[in-house]
């Protein structure tokens, strides 16, 4: 057996370089780059190895470990899980900063490789800088915090373990059912220790998407359920994107006259102009899609885990509705007593289409869906229409303005706060797979870092990040990263005076306004100069006050050669309402009559919940 003597860190880097994938029919690196912040725990070992390979594996310096790992997560979403970025940190706070990003990738079923420095395996120098000592468990380090938020976790304690561990990590991240982040801890001494590695470990390997086909009995049962439906509905989830099944979904819906509603992760599975598109479903959706869901008797849920915002805490579907869950993950396909169809979304749709040849939904249901689609157009037009002069724009009006000026290749991105609801309801997708709302983990701070990662993945169109003032203040340093690395973004920053959407929830459930808006958290009011701040990080920036000014500024941002931030004040109390129920905890004992009334509303809403199917 031929071998080559390398350090553990050099072997890891050489292995990553050798992994290949297929993107749009062409071979490409599976790992096209590494986000890195170096410290004493990784700079002398892994850092040296990355420097040696800088021509074939680019390294990008982030400003915050959480931000760079979020950028890697968004990169994976934008490539539809075809490529994976690496994020590496030192030990201690650098590592734990990445735990939040790992949780986001885990919730969103996205691949992310995390390599963190660790304490010395020999323990001779202990306790080392940034080591958190567990008196009763000396082998535990802060890197054990990654165990619950990763799909694969390992600590390399001998160099030769790279041979076994790295391939397993890759297979886990590429598994369509178990996809998620992988973590590998790298003790500082082990990173630099050498071993005679087999050369075949570093031979190029091309990875292609595995597509499990459906069980024939499950397939026949799903077809029978749909054939017996009088009001069938399709719910398109993120799995449609990851399977590259958008074309099959469109053809399936057209052939069988099926209205298609989308989850947050599944948005832009169909373009908004598609005749079968019926809007977004759930708490962040629109009344039209939710009305169809309430009337449907059979629901084909494709590639969705049916979280509470999709199902309105399990109130949007009718009492007698039957769910057929087409999902590559058995765990998701069998939730809530659904009828499972465990398969890749694309292959499952193709085979289901064959069994349903000649069958279509009835004309009355097709007409019903068409009417709701027309009403959706009116609903969005009304929500996004600019208001009178002198009135603060709403989030919806901001979304509408940018949407009108966007093209089919432009990519809209947001995360927690008020924008997920406003974009999901009011953004009319002009291109397939052009939308990313991180709402599986609802991670504030994802927006700018995520846009940076998405920009790396996309060569066409603009990447447009929508965020509020709260998220901007939480994590904005990757504006600098985008400028330094030459990855231009357009950032729409809406200042509504604090965490306005959470205050809406607080007050809507009977609570008193408390600790959410900037005007109420301290004795000194501060007007943040967003433009000056963004410019200090190297961006172009300007403030606008009206929708008309926003549209003009957006045109200038398109022509700019670097990241541009457009800031404007927006109305804190104007929101698009989906009409769906959402269960939150409301106190059972309270001195406030408003809370008591909210509790009664909660109990009334819960009476519409489906416990089993």
TrEMBL record:
<dbReference type="InterPro" id="IPR045229">
    <property type="entry name" value="TPP_enz"/>
</dbReference>
<feature type="domain" description="Thiamine pyrophosphate enzyme central">
    <location>
        <begin position="219"/>
        <end position="352"/>
    </location>
</feature>
<dbReference type="InterPro" id="IPR012000">
    <property type="entry name" value="Thiamin_PyroP_enz_cen_dom"/>
</dbReference>
<dbReference type="GO" id="GO:0050660">
    <property type="term" value="F:flavin adenine dinucleotide binding"/>
</dbReference>
<dbReference type="InterPro" id="IPR030817">
    <property type="entry name" value="Myo_inos_IolD"/>
</dbReference>
<feature type="domain" description="Thiamine pyrophosphate enzyme TPP-binding">
    <location>
        <begin position="436"/>
        <end position="566"/>
    </location>
</feature>
<dbReference type="Pfam" id="PF02776">
    <property type="entry name" value="TPP_enzyme_N"/>
</dbReference>
<dbReference type="GO" id="GO:0016823">
    <property type="term" value="F:hydrolase activity, acting on acid carbon-carbon bonds, in ketonic substances"/>
</dbReference>
<dbReference type="GO" id="GO:0030976">
    <property type="term" value="F:thiamine pyrophosphate binding"/>
</dbReference>
<dbReference type="GO" id="GO:0009099">
    <property type="term" value="P:L-valine biosynthetic process"/>
</dbReference>
<dbReference type="Pfam" id="PF02775">
    <property type="entry name" value="TPP_enzyme_C"/>
</dbReference>
<dbReference type="GO" id="GO:0000287">
    <property type="term" value="F:magnesium ion binding"/>
</dbReference>
<feature type="domain" description="Thiamine pyrophosphate enzyme N-terminal TPP-binding">
    <location>
        <begin position="43"/>
        <end position="130"/>
    </location>
</feature>
<protein>
    <submittedName>
        <fullName>Acetolactate synthase</fullName>
    </submittedName>
</protein>
<dbReference type="InterPro" id="IPR012001">
    <property type="entry name" value="Thiamin_PyroP_enz_TPP-bd_dom"/>
</dbReference>
<dbReference type="Pfam" id="PF00205">
    <property type="entry name" value="TPP_enzyme_M"/>
</dbReference>
<dbReference type="InterPro" id="IPR029035">
    <property type="entry name" value="DHS-like_NAD/FAD-binding_dom"/>
</dbReference>
<dbReference type="GO" id="GO:0003984">
    <property type="term" value="F:acetolactate synthase activity"/>
</dbReference>
<keyword id="KW-0786">Thiamine pyrophosphate</keyword>
<dbReference type="GO" id="GO:0005948">
    <property type="term" value="C:acetolactate synthase complex"/>
</dbReference>
<dbReference type="GO" id="GO:0009097">
    <property type="term" value="P:isoleucine biosynthetic process"/>
</dbReference>
<comment type="similarity">
    <text>Belongs to the TPP enzyme family.</text>
</comment>
<dbReference type="InterPro" id="IPR029061">
    <property type="entry name" value="THDP-binding"/>
</dbReference>
<dbReference type="GO" id="GO:0019310">
    <property type="term" value="P:inositol catabolic process"/>
</dbReference>
<dbReference type="InterPro" id="IPR011766">
    <property type="entry name" value="TPP_enzyme_TPP-bd"/>
</dbReference>
